[in-house]
Amino acid sequence: MEKSITYLKKQRRSSVQILYKLSILNEDIDKIKQEVLDNSQFDKLDDDLINYILKILDQYETIKQSILKLIPNNWSWERLPNIIKAILSVSAFEIINNINPKAVVINEAIEMVREFLPSWDTNFINGLLDKIN
Questions:
Q1: What is the sign, positive or negative, of the torsion defined by CA atoms of 8, 10, 16, 18?
Q2: All domains of the chain, ordered by start, with CATH?
Q3: Quick one: DSSP state of residue 117?
Q4: Where is the NusB/RsmB/TIM44 domain (predicted)?
């Protein structure tokens, strides 16, 4: 069954929220995975969404390294706002795994940045995600 655009946005947003939690609390990935499986810390997640989030968490370090290779030399992972790390990670996951067309992923990422951190330069996000293969 094909998923609706609304569902895909919810999937992306929920994933960003979980990765944001990972960043701000500096929690262990395995602990976050268990919380997702327990479904106690989050709104009720369906099985597809749980599996999607677990795949992102399984690939998190690889995704992070892919992003780090593309960040300009005057930037570091620590310097990025936590919400930007989360948005970049979910977006990079979708691009790397060909889940959605790159243009769609980038547009959704820019929308989330504008919503969560309106003062952030979206050109940074656009340029970085465009370089991911």
A1: negative
A2: 5-131 (1.10.940.10)
A3: -
A4: 10-132
Positive or negative: CA dihedral 40, 42, 45, 51: negative
Q: How many CB atoms within 10 Å of residue 111?
A: 14
- Give dist(CA 113, CA 76) in Å, integer: 18
Inter-helix orientation angle 122-131/102-116, to 10°: 150
Q: Do 114 and 121 contact (CB within 8 A), yes or no?
A: no
pTM of the complete model: 0.85
* Tens place of pLDDT per residue across the chain (133 aa): 467 878 888 888 888 988 888 777 777 777 777 777 776 555 566 778 888 888 999 999 999 999 999 998 888 899 999 999 999 999 999 999 999 999 999 999 999 999 999 989 899 999 999 999 8
